[in-house]
């Protein structure tokens, strides 16, 4: 399992993982443990898919010899006061992932749908890429609980 780089502050967990397929389930396990500790298990299903896709993409497409993949899990609050999660995956690759909405994908394809899945799960404004200090990039996504269906929609 990845060794936490830091446990401070209490709202951030940082780990580094070998760029190997076995790191994906280990990162998911750490995610579940973190969400449990933070009382955010309602985000687990979506966050687990996001972590799986982002770590898998980093391992498959941004593998640089001798470099690890880093995950950062950050407890955040949005402008409405909802507590959520920001997932970051840092890697040493230069290429930026791009969402390909209109690319035809054969029904039996086993690759090429990860970012579309993330975009569908969290929304087009809640994921993206950023530069980072040093080499490589980070890909991030945010997850928040669904709004309470019993409350009126402020956008209506």
Structure notes:
This protein has three helices and six strands. It is α+β, with helices and mostly antiparallel strands and about 160 residues long. The chain has one domain: Histidine kinase-like ATPase, C-terminal domain (Heat Shock Protein 90, 2-Layer Sandwich). Strands 1-2-3-4-6-5 form a six-stranded antiparallel sheet. Strand 1 and strand 2 form a beta hairpin. The longest helix has 18 residues. It is globular. The N terminus is likely disordered.
In short:
This protein has helices at 23-38, 44-61, 114-122, and strands spanning 3-6, 12-17, 69-77, 83-91, 127-131, 137-143. The protein is of the alpha+beta class.
Biggest sheet: strands side by side, in what order?
1-2-3-4-6-5
Q: Structural class, from helix and strand content?
A: alpha+beta
At CATH level 2, the architecture is 2-Layer Sandwich
Question: Alpha-carbon distance between the termini?
Answer: 46 Å
| CATH level-3 fold name | Heat Shock Protein 90
Percentage of residues in helical conformation: 25-40%
Give the biggest beta sheet: 6 strands, antiparallel
Report the count of strand segments: 6
Which stretches of 5+ consecutive residues score pLDDT under 50?
1-8
Mean pLDDT reading: 82
Strand content: 25-35%
Give the name of the CATH superfamily: Histidine kinase-like ATPase, C-terminal domain
Kindly provide the name of the CATH class.
Alpha Beta
Helix count equals: 3
């Amino acid at each position: 399992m990845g060794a936490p780089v830091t446990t401070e502050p209490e709202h951030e967990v940082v780990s580094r993982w070998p760029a190997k397929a076995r790191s994906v389930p280990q990162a998911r396990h750490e995610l579940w443990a973190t969400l449990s500790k933070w009382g955010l298990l309602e985000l687990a299903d979506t966050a687990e898919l996001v972590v799986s896709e982002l770590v898998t993409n980093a391992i498959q497409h941004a593998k640089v010899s001798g470099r690890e993949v880093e995950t950062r899990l950050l407890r955040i609050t949005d402008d409405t006061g909802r507590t959520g999660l920001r997932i970051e995956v840092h890697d040493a690759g230069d290429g930026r992932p791009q969402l390909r909405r209109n690319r035809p994908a054969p029904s039996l394809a086993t690759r090429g749908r990860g970012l579309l899945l993330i975009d569908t799960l969290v929304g087009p404004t809640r994921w993206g890429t950023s530069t980072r200090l040093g080499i490589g990039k980070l890909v991030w996504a945010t997850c928040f609980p669904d709004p309470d269906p019993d409350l009126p929609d402020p956008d209506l």
